[in-house]
Design goal:
By secondary structure, this protein is an alpha+beta fold. The chain is built from ten helices and four strands.
Length: 193
Amino acid sequence: LTPEAIALLAPPAVDLPLRELLGRVAGVLEALLPFDPRSLGATALGDGDHPLRDELSAWARMLDLGSVEILVAPDVPAICMPVSRVRPTVVVSALREATPAGRFAAARAMLLTALSLTIPARLAASEFTLALGALLRQFDPMYKPEGVDAARLVELSAKVTRALPRELHAELTPLAQRILTGGIKDAEAIRAG
């Protein structure tokens, strides 16, 4: 996809600086906030059959993601939910056939994965607010998002500080400053896309 097409398909609430920031720190945040498949009762599809397998694989190839790990769960908040960018992984519901809604959900999940937006897609709004707040505190130590538990924010901020390479911090400073000065959008709006 061209950069113009990606910009058109990206969630409107996630502007370019935030997309770039989340993309560059995906490995750090995913390591600190790992997805637990047991939380959804998800199991690996492996070589099993699923109506969206071919669709997901085609999108992964088109978006240069390589192979995608597919987990199946009985009850997924969306038909197909992206959960990891570092090791492209999605959780799909146990469908009997590929419906248009299922195909759209697969495409959207793979695009969110390619854009490194798995963290806002899989975390509850309050948890994403905490994660984004901890990240932005690396660039403005006084930053505190509204409604976040201060102790949890300090704890996660310290973990991000230890995990974020110094060189990457320096590279991300201009992006973070643009986000901080431009105002932070509501986590629920970011999650909704």
